[in-house]
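the two lines:
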Amino acid sequence: MVSITSARLGGILFLILCVAYGIYADDIHLDYWSEQEVFNARSMPYFIAIAGSFCAILLILVPAPKTDWSAVLGLNWLPACLLLVIMSGYGILLEPLGFVIATILLLITAFLVLGVRSFRAPLLVAATIAMAFWLLMDKLGIYLAPGVLPEQLFQYLGVTG
Amino acid sequence: MLDGLFIGLQTVLTFHNLILVFAGCATGTLIGMLPGLGPITAIALMIPITYGFDPSSGMILLAGVYYGAIFGGSTSSILINAPGVAGTVATAFDGYPIARNGQPGKALAIAAYSSFAGGTLAALLLAGTAPFLADLSLGFQSADYFALMLLGLTLVSAFSSQGEYLKALMMTCFGLMLSTVGTDLSAGVQRFTFGRMDLIDGISFLMLAMATFALSEAIMMVLKPTHANEPAIRLDKTSLHLSLPELRSIVPTISRSSVLGFFVGVLPGAGATIASFLAYGVERNLATSEDRKQFGQGSLKGLAAPEAANNAACTGSFVPLLTLGIPGSGTTAILLGALLAYGIQPGPRLFIDEPEIFWSVIVSMYFGNLMLLVLNLPLIPYIARLLLVPRQYLIPIIMFFSLMGVYLVSFNVFDIQMMVFIAICAVLLRLLEFPMAPLLLGFILGGMLEDNLRRALAVADGQFSFLWDRPTTVVLMSLVVIAILIPMIRALWPKPSR
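prediction for all of em together
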């Protein structure tokens, strides 16, 4: 039975990508004159799709050393995945919450996910980094928006006009 | 050449630029010291800061970061046996044993002296050869450039470690694929944007570099916390002093390894890793039988050779970048990206049109090495304390700076999401043991490769005969064929192991 090695798995995934890429290359809109040219906007993607597919097929066919999948599965997946979710969440919350609050939340949750036990030290470090960075950007003339929600809150409290 | 050096000295020897060299070296050392984070990450993290500078100052800072990161990598190799980058793996062979024998200061001093000598000799060789090569390449046409870029891409794969050739080729194709996303400027049509406005300008190289290196490295550190619990060797009461006989014994090694490293570095795709291993092997073979026994146990020559070679190779890798506009490694690819972002097109015209940039980069390399020796080395006991900072704090901070580095360029939160997505792909690819540098190189060269192919075809009336019309193109294409075929034959029919 053919065993699935990391090389073979990568080859299969890449072959699928190349085929999809080649098919999508067909969707590139060309006007009549461009279509008559020897080299147009579709040509390079076709070359790449063919070259990539060729490499992928070779990679699938060439014997490769066995992969120890148990070692891969035994990695620290949970904190790594949580960090990715936190970063993605940062992208979602940056505009509504504003730079300072979103950054403090990003750093604190990441510290806690990575095993920091207390809450005071992470809060202190996160707040210092966020405020220092915000002040530095302010000094450099780079505007980091306070965020939609804090702005509305300040307006509600009558702090800003 | 002397005029050029004078221009370079004038540019570098201003208070502002000297501070930048120092800042670059110190920051590069700090980042490069963290295991897993190499010069590519260090440069990627620093690029957004340089957008406010003029191109010369930006390149001066980045050159300093490059050297600092290599030196920082050596420091972590020596102190915790965890090379920051592949180029400093050979440093750990003898550097770590010397440090464990109670002489970490001596090991760091040898690394610094060798790096300085290697970098200085290579900077002189670069100053001598680059103008000549730039002159020579002025006669290059689109067909030659196309062949040369193809050669760069294939050599990166050909020089990848054994068994990774096909994977490296695949990653190059993947990089080329990503480079086609966005608007094709020559035809004015959108490609692979899937109707998203955010993709019309294509994928930002900085985002790709940050996601594939900085972010994915941070995630890999969490996934595989291999060296997290290894105690760093403390440097509080150590001597950085080297005796005269010790110095004398390593001088010939440093000279040989520097020249070797430089010429290996010039080859596209070869780089610091091959140079350091080659220099280590050469010195081991040249050593007397008595000396040879010391290799791997704490040999001074075994430490000096890879250190001189990897620094010289870093300088050598600037030759194709500055003279031909072709990056030969992941690090020079990202530097090329930075130059393009400043609106500078590297290549033979750079030497003529922007001599202050060309020469200031060369001169700053020398000053970067000098700074590392004079200022960074005494500071190492303090800088090395970074190794004692818990990973739980370091990793989120790296993540934050990576995200901010990209966000502050575009102020578009879509880039953050895109970056996380690319980082996920990069982590999975790393786990499947696919190299990342060819991806970056393919991405950076993709647009230029396509432009030159289009131009060459237009000149040749749409005929592919341009590939054999000119002797230069024929030679380069022959090298491409060799660079593809030999490793492929080796990959398809591996030698039976004895």
